[in-house]
Known about the structure:
Structural class: alpha/beta
CATH architecture: 3-Layer(aba) Sandwich
Helix content: 10-25%
Distance between the termini: 43 Å
Amino acid sequence: MHATALNNCSRFFETYSDFFGKDKSTKVVEIGSQDVNGSLRSVAPNAFDYIGVDFQSAKGVDIVLSDPYSLPFESESVDIVLSSSCFEHSEMFWLVFLEVMRVLKPTGLFYLNAPSAGSFHRYPVDCWRFYPDSGRALVQWSRRNGGNAELLESYTQKGGTWQDFVGVFLKDQNFVRRYPRRIIDTKKDFENGTVLGSADMLNISGICQNDKKLLAIGQIVSEQLQL
């Protein structure tokens, strides 16, 4: 678990957890909960009923999944679903997304963090990277399958190796007014941000961060050669 992943999830709870009960009545499910150098559980409110699911028994895992595309929870029974650094390892993450939407209550939120960059890393496979329009595409996929999901906000983390895409989804868009605050109301270190209600991207950048680094290095080398 890299530092920016923990920080972004912490900001998610700081922004949205006040709209839920402050006790075990709030059920949180983390997909891909194995504790590898840290866990999202550490930044969640202690009072919440936190359940970690993964594909193998390990620290931080409460339930081992027998099917990666089937969550062992009743429909509309979960308040918050979290997934960080996991969807890139799912061969068909769009099926997982539909399962997330199924188990969430109509007022439920899905916090997704997935890299937009970074090296090839198999756990046990590495299939995908997520770009700024990924969140809106998942919403369209939900609606095409009879859902009513909405993307409240998304952005790409500035800095670090993985340059995580972060998206916050609402199960049913009829409850948008329940959540008036956004992470990027106060966050500064992001680019290509989206906020529900605006078609414009915030801090837009058409050049990925790795390319910016290469261009900067190239400029430095060019200047040195001219000396």
